[in-house]
TrEMBL record:
Domain FecR protein per the UniProt entry, residue ranges: 112-202
Every FecR N-terminal domain range: 15-55
Protein's UniProt name: Protein FecR
One MF annotation (Gene Ontology) recorded for this entry: sigma factor antagonist activity
Annotated signal sequence range: none
Gene3D superfamilies associated with the record: 2.60.120.1440
Domain of life: Bacteria
């Protein structure tokens, strides 16, 4: 059994949480730091519990590892301490509890704000920041005295930051988008996060990356995973078009077009490999994907087959 899923006793889990709370509630003495190090070294289970709770803490704070260590002495809010204490139950729950904490298939529905497939929402947050959620998206919002943190759990968002001395940050499963804005979008794709910056600048920091953060400039976009940052490029024309309910194709591969369209509808939307590289141009309203599919045979030598309402395939036109 791996370290990430083996059993941790409730007692040790509670001790790990208590150590984290104590270290962050003030500047610990040298003796207490020695006691903490001794506790970690006393048993493999102690170190395993500490690594788990520190992973959870980094996600709650929205900071990469090196920044989290530098902020170790910073005070935390009562609500955050209470949340950490509650997590001691999951930390001691072995395979089921830890995997639930890591994967959280239920989490989008428990998020502060979420959308269903094909839905978009336009919100104004407490500080005046505009938050737009694209299809099938979920975020948690955590504002405190030191930062404005948006935890993107799923999908895609656009942010128009309000004037505020606190930095606006977005945390994703891959890392941190820091001091961004005033207008930018963040999208999750498989194991990548993609940031599109429309104004200002931003710092991109993967979660497992000790190097200098990448500085992204207005008019650029970039993708990154937990370890690496890609090469910045020019903005994609669809990086903001979805907020107007449009999908823009400018010589787009048919396979890519259908993959993008499938985000806005339930079920499977397939593309025969023999026509995947056909090119398509035009502006298409996302609120009516069936109409878009009906128009495809007029633009390309293809036919659309509906096997069921939720299983559609685009194939070469029959001779």
């Amino acid at each position: 059994m791996s370290d990430s899923t083996s059993l941790i006793s409730p007692t040790v889990a509670a001790q790990a949480v208590q150590w984290l709370v104590e270290l962050q509630d003030g500047e610990p003495s040298a003796q207490r730091r020695q006691d903490w190090a001794a506790w970690r070294a006393a048993a493999p289970e102690h170190e395993q519990a500490w690594q788990r709770i520190e992973t959870v803490n980094r996600r709650l704070r929205g900071l990469p590892t090196d920044l989290a260590h530098r902020a170790l002495g910073a005070p935390s809010s009562r609500s955050r301490r209470d949340a950490l204490k509650a997590l001691s139950v999951l930390l001691g729950a072995g395979v089921v509890g830890w995997q639930a904490l890591e994967h959280k298939p239920w989490q989008p529905w428990l998020a502060d704000h979420h959308t269903g497939v094909g839905e978009r929402r336009d919100l104004t947050l407490a500080d005046g920041t505009r938050l737009v959620l694209n299809t099938d998206s979920a975020v948690n919002v955590r504002f405190d005295q030191g930062q404005r943190l948006i935890d993107l759990r799923r999908g895609e968002i656009l942010l128009q930051g309000a004037a505020d001395p606190r930095p606006l940050r977005v945390i994703t499963p891959q890392g941190l988008v820091d001091r961004a804005g005033p207008q930018f979008s963040v999208r999750l794709d498989a194991r990548l996060s993609r940031v599109s910056l429309f104004d200002g600048s931003a710092a991109i920091q993967p979660s497992v990356h000790s190097g200098v953060p990448l500085r992204l400039e207005a008019g650029q976009q970039v993708s990154f995973d937990t370890h690496r940052i890609g090469t910045p490029g020019a903005l994609d024309e669809n990086s903001r078009a979805w907020t107007r309910g449009m999908l823009i194709a400018s010589g787009m591969r048919l396979a890519d077009f259908l993959a993008e369209l499938s985000r806005y509808r339930h079920g499977r939307l397939g593309c025969d490999p023999s026509i995947a590289d056909l090119r398509l141009s035009g502006s298409y309203p996302l609120d009516d994907s069936e109409r878009i599919l009906a128009l495809l045979p007029k633009a390309l030598p293809v036919e659309v087959r509906h096997f069921t309402r939720y299983w559609v395939s685009v194939r070469p036109r029959s001779a």
